[in-house]
Amino acid sequence: MRRQLKYIYDHHLDDFEEFMVLKNFSRRTVTAYMQAVYQFLDWWDDNCPDIPMSDDVVRKYLVFRFESNKAWQTVNSDYSAIQKWFKNVLMLRWDIQKLPRPRKERQLPRVFSREDIVKIIEGASTFKHQVLLTFIYVTGVRLSEAIHMRIDDVDGNRKQIRIAKGKGGKDRYVLIPDVLLELLRTYYLRERPEEYLFNGKNKGKPLSQRAVQWALQEAKKNAGVKRPGGIHTLRNCYATHHLEGGTDLVFLQEQMGHKQLKTTIRYIGLCVERHRYVQHPINGMAIRYQIPTA
Asked: Which residues contact 135 (CB under 8 A, 6 or more apart)?
């Protein structure tokens, strides 16, 4: 019985992957959801292998995950993955009374001050890293969006960049100020990147996420900025500093690629004051760039 059930569920994992491919989920989501279900099946095989799959089994697993001190985001992702596998592949009952979605933890995002942003950018190890950190701060793009930004996605005439297949597989355009546009032109002439705006060790290949995180941590260390925060904190700063400068909330939602306005609204709690006009925070920053001489 145990071996037979394990075989059936393993077979349905292939079906689950095909389901997500047909639904056009991103490769990152497919990988995360498959991993979540794999872990669930391993737990089931160790703890209750002779019990057929049911919402009662899932309930025990989710309680186990919480009792193992897993973060809300982790358990919520487990919930979404297993729910989709249950309902769309196994065609099993999913009782929301037995399986309520984990309540979201309300945590305000971390932010750096404007003064810290200047110190961090100036503290970057190279001109390339300075431009990279400036780019992420000024555009508010996600890390995965930044490293996959192609040179052709920068439109100097329209003063905007195109985010291709951002979160949820959606494209969007982000406006950029003249300060960043001029900086990118200088950077391009000096670095001569190929295909991607920010190349890794090899021309034509994008930077790795790890390399970008390292660049920020080195810049913070050089600048003496001890406040916790990673690359995503620069995105939080983009939103918070824009709202403090008076940028319209709906405009900001569009620029950040948020599906719902309430996701953008949470940044208001970090703002001291707001005015209803668009003002790029970098315009008032005097940053010294290490532009290599020819």
From this structure: 141, 146, 149, 180, 184, 197, 198
What is the C-alpha to C-alpha distance for residues 56 and 97, in angstroms, rounded to an integer? 11
Does domain 114-284 fall under CATH 1.10.443.10? My reply is: yes
Residue written as token pair 């985001």:
73
The answer to whether domain 2-90 has CATH 3.30.1330.40 is no
Task: Count Cα neighbours of 150 within 13 Å in the Cβ-side half-sphere.
Answer: 7
For 181-214, the pLDDT digits (tens) are: 999 999 999 999 999 999 998 999 999 999 999 9
Q: Which residues contact 79 (CB under 8 A, 6 or more apart)?
A: 62, 99, 101, 102
pTM, rounded to two decimals: 0.68
- Please identify which residue in the block is written with the tokens 């990118």: 184
Q: Are strands 154-155 and 172-175 parallel, antiparallel or unpaired?
A: unpaired
Contact 85/72 with Cβ under 8 angstroms? Answer: no
Find out whether 140 and 235 touch, Cβ atoms under 8 Å.
Answer: yes
Q: What is the location of CATH 1.10.150.130 in the chain?
A: 2-90
Q: Which position has the higher pLDDT, 111 or 261?
A: 111
Beta bridge partners of 54: none
Packing angle between helix 2-22 and helix 72-85, nearest 10 degrees? Answer: 100
Pairing of strands 160-163, 154-155: antiparallel
